[in-house]
Specification:
CATH topology: Inosine-uridine Nucleoside N-ribohydrolase, Chain A
Bound molecules: alpha-D-ribofuranose, calcium ion
Strand content: 15-25%
Largest sheet: 8 strands, mixed
Radius of gyration: 18 Å
Oligomer: single chain
CATH architecture: Alpha-Beta Complex
Order of helices and strands: EHEHEHHEHEHHEHEHHEHEEEEH
Mean pLDDT: 97
Strand order of the largest sheet: 3-2-1-4-5-6-12-9
Number of domains: 1
Helix content: 25-40%
Low-confidence stretches: none
Shape: globular
C-alpha cells in the first residue's frame, strides 16, 4: 500500500518532536509533505525553530517547514514553558537549525497542498492548537472536503483537563479554532488524554531509547528526562506521557488503538469550562457523531513500535 501523505501541524514540544521523528522514520507508511508550525507550547518563533531542529536531528532537511499563526483566532496566546521549558525542547543540547524556513505562510501551504493533491489523499496531523487548520478552513472552505482525515492530539473525557480542571492544552489554547474544526464535517480521529496518559515513558522504556546509543536515541531520552517532571509531580505518573506520537503511531499501526465514533463538541463560552471537549461517550444525546474518539491504546505495542522505528534514524 502506498504511504499516506500527511502534513504535520505542530508546536514542538518534546512530545511533538518524538511524533515527527517517528513519522520520518516510517517512510513505508507515511510520506511527510511538510511540517507547519503553530504557536502553542512556546511562541511561534520557537516552535518554527524547534520543528527544523527535529527535522535536522532526523537527517531530513528536505522536509519544508513553514511558520504559521502566532496566536489563537480570538484570544491571547497561552504557552506551556512550565512543562516544556523555556526553549520548548529543554533536555538535550541540540544545535540551532541550519535549514531555513520555507517561503510562505503555513496556512497557504496547507491550502495549496490540499488543492494540488487528489481529493481524499492528504491527511492533516495537528499536534498543537488548531489555529492553522481552522484558519485554512476559513480562508478556503473548498479544501475541507479534500481532506482525507484529520488525526489530532487533543481533548479529554475521562481524564478531564491538564491545563485547567476541564480542558486539555491544545483545545484550551484556541477553543474557537477547535470548534471550527470539529464542526467542519471532516473525518476526525482524536487522540485525547484518555489514551495518551497510558502512553507513559517508564524508566525501563526510556532506558530502551538510551540503549539505541544514537544521536536520536539519546536526544529522545534526554527530552523525556526533562518532560516527565510535570506529569510525575502532578499525576504521580510513572513517566512522561507521549501525547503526540500517538497520532503518528495510529497512521502506522491503527490497530494499537480503539475508541468510539461519537459526538464531540467544544466549550467556547464558559470561562469555567472553556476548551472542554464535551464527548458524548455514552451516547446520551441525539447529537450526530463527528469524531472517532480513542479510549484505549496497547501501550507496550506502541513503545515497541516507537523504539524499533527510532532505531532506524
Ligand atoms: O496536552 C498535551 C498537548 O499539549 C501535546 O500536544 C503537547 O505537546 C502540548 O501541545
Ligand atoms: Ca504538541
Amino acid at each position: 500500500m502506498a504511504p499516506r501523505k500527511i502534513i504535520i501541524d505542530t508546536d514542538p514540544g518534546q512530545d511533538d518532536a518524538v511524533a515527527i521523528l517517528l513519522a520520518l522514520a516510517s517512510p513505508e507508511e507515511v510520506d511527510v509533505l511538510g511540517v507547519t508550525a503553530v504557536a502553542g507550547n512556546v511562541p511561534l518563533e520557537l516552535t518554527a525553530k524547534n520543528a527544523r531542529i527535529v527535522c535536522e536531528l532526523a537527517g531530513h532537511t528536505q522536509i519544508p517547514v513553514y511558520a504559521g499563526c502566532d496566536r489563537p483566532l480570538n484570544r491571547p496566546l497561552v504557552t506551556a514553558e512550565h512543562v516544556h521549558g523555556k526553549t520548548g525542547l529543554d533536555g538535550p543540547v541540540l544545535p540551532d537549525p541550519e535549514m531555513p524556513l520555507a517561503e510562505g505562510h503555513a496556512v497557504d501551504f496547507i491550502i495549496e497542498t490540499l488543492r494540488a493533491h487528489d481529493p481524499g489523499t492528504v491527511t492533516l496531523c495537528p499536534l498543537g492548537p488548531l489555529t492553522n487548520i481552522a484558519t485554512a478552513f476559513q480562508k478556503a472552505p473548498d479544501i475541507v472536503d479534500r481532506v482525507q482525515e484529520i488525526v489530532l492530539m487533543g481533548g479529554a473525557y475521562f481524564e478531564v483537563g491538564n491545563i485547567t480542571p476541564a480542558a486539555e492544552f491544545n483545545i484550551y489554547v484556541d477553543p474557537e479554532a477547535a470548534d471550527i474544526v470539529f464542526k467542519s464535517g471532516a473525518h476526525i480521529v482524536v487522540m485525547p488524554l484518555d489514551v495518551t496518559h497510558d502512553a507513559l515513558v517508564t524508566p525501563h522504556r526510556n532506558d530502551a531509547f538510551r540503549a539505541l546509543d544514537s544521536k536520536v536515541g539519546h536526544a529522545v531520552a534526554e527530552m523525556t528526562d526533562f518532560f516527565e517532571r510535570f506529569d510525575k509531580e502532578k499525576y504521580g505518573s510513572e513517566g512522561a506521557p507521549l501525547h503526540d506520537p500517538c497520532v503518528t503511531a495510529y497512521l502506522i499501526r491503527p490497530e494499537l488503538f480503539s475508541g468510539r465514533h461519537i459526538n464531540v463538541e467544544i466549550e467556547t463560552q464558559s470561562e469555567l469550562t472553556l476548551g472542554m471537549t464535551v464527548a458524548d461517550w455514552w451516547r446520551v444525546t441525539d447529537r450526530a457523531p463527528n469524531a472517532m474518539f480513542m479510549g484505549d491504546v496497547d501501550a507496550q505495542g506502541f513503545f515497541d513500535l516507537l523504539t524499533e522505528r527510532l532505531a532506524r534514524l
